[in-house]
Specification:
alpha+beta; 14 strands; globular
């Protein structure tokens, strides 16, 4: 049961009812209150129209990326770089912070990871054995990005399970007391520092060592910046992608006609992945107001939080035809799943690869499956939306 009385005036994205019913909530707000406001977290705005989300995303004069996760603690005094660059960096610091990551996420570099990702997915499916019910989230989706990111960073594969706890602390424990969030961040920071120290002592061919060796303007990138960048990759690169994979499997399990079509027409996989990204985009970012500004007729004041629900923008009927329908053969699909403006996701190539391979391998192994119990599906809380429990019943062939 939700404690929210009216999503237009006292919404809380940590309320389990929010992500469970978010598409209906956004549709309702779009019709009567396109920019909602809540006193939660010291004052938070929620625009749901594409034009408002886009305007804020591109407006770096009035909005800062210093804080990108709305919670009981608000970043202050870390601009222009922020704590997890480049996503927390404001211009002009953002340019160089982003540029140092681009080589590692170039299309050819990411494409070379496909055999490794495919082998990982097959091992996970092998581990399912003869089970009739598989948790598509816990048994499958939630294992893929942690292992891929650990490999890229040169972190121990055995730590992949630990990453789930870090993700939960940072992205889902948003309503915890500030001292509890601070303690969780200290645990994560300690882990990252230990990994950096190990890489300083024993450099190798991985992304962590590359970042430590990078120079900008003739000077080495600071250890703080390296740690913050790794924090971004570890948290954002994991939860967003496993949520996208889980949502795709949820849709196929809940929509037998789309599953059957994708099995019969595997060439549709690319357009299907783009449509899953549009319809079930996992990521809502945040901004902090720098200067008073009016958006959608609402006056936003300095230090207010602003949520940027790119998934809501993706379902705006003013921009997308049949916006609330999932069309796996949608021909034109200029969605905002990876964000808008200067902070468009640098890891989009990797996310697409992982989603595509994960879906291909799952339906190749299990061409017929359904939700075992729709009421047993649970969703995350906070700004990254995806299934956390996804019981799927496999139709075993004789």
């Amino acid at each position: 049961m939700s404690d929210v009385r009216d999503w237009a005036t006292d919404f809380d994205h940590a309320d389990p009812a929010y992500n469970a019913h978010v598409h209906e909530i956004w549709a309702d707000l779009r019709g009567r209150c396109p920019v909602a406001h809540s006193p939660a977290y010291g004052g938070t705005w929620l625009p749901v129209r594409h034009e408002d989300v886009r305007a804020i995303a591109y407006d770096t004069d009035h909005f800062s990326s210093e804080g990108v996760v709305v919670s009981t603690t608000k970043a202050e005094g870390t601009a222009p770089l922020g704590g997890a660059p480049p996503i927390t960096a404001d211009p002009p610091a953002h340019h160089d912070a982003r540029r140092i990551l681009l080589p590692a996420f170039a299309p050819k570099v990411i494409a070379a990871l496909e055999p490794e990702v495919r082998a990982l997915c097959r091992r996970l499916l092998d581990a399912v054995g003869d089970a009739d019910v598989v948790d598509g989230a816990v048994d499958y989706a939630q294992h893929i990005p942690p292992h891929v990111i650990a490999g890229m960073l040169g972190f121990p594969q055995s730590d992949a399970e630990m990453f789930r706890g870090f993700v939960h602390d940072v992205l889902e424990g948003i309503d915890r007391a500030p001292e509890d969030r601070e303690a969780a961040f200290l645990r994560l920071d300690g882990y990252l520092q230990a990994q950096i120290d190990d890489h300083v002592a024993r450099p190798r061919e991985d992304l962590t060592s590359q970042l430590l060796a990078t120079e900008v303007g003739g000077a080495p990138v600071s250890r703080d910046q390296v740690r913050g960048t790794i924090l971004l990759l570890l948290i954002a690169g994991i939860d967003t992608t496993w949520s996208g994979i889980g949502s795709a499997l949820w849709h196929l399990a809940a929509t037998p006609s789309d599953l059957a079509r994708l099995v019969a027409e595997p060439a549709l996989v690319d357009s299907a992945i783009e449509e899953f990204l549009r319809a079930y985009a996992p990521v809502t970012m945040a901004r902090i107001v720098k200067q008073e500004v009016v958006v959608g007729g609402c006056t936003m004041r300095p230090r207010d939080w602003v949520l940027l629900p790119f998934p809501a923008a993706n379902r705006d009927p003013e921009v997308f035809d049949r916006a609330d329908e999932v069309l796996i053969d949608r021909a034109e699909n200029r969605h905002a799943a990876f964000g808008l403006g200067i902070h468009r996701c640098v890891g989009s190539n990797l996310a697409r690869l992982e989603m595509k391979v994960a879906v291909e391998e799952f339906i190749a192994r299990f061409p017929e499956f359904r939700l075992a119990d729709p009421s047993a599906v649970t969703w995350s809380v906070g700004q990254v939306r995806g299934p956390r429990r996804l019981p799927i019943r496999i139709a075993r062939r004789a």
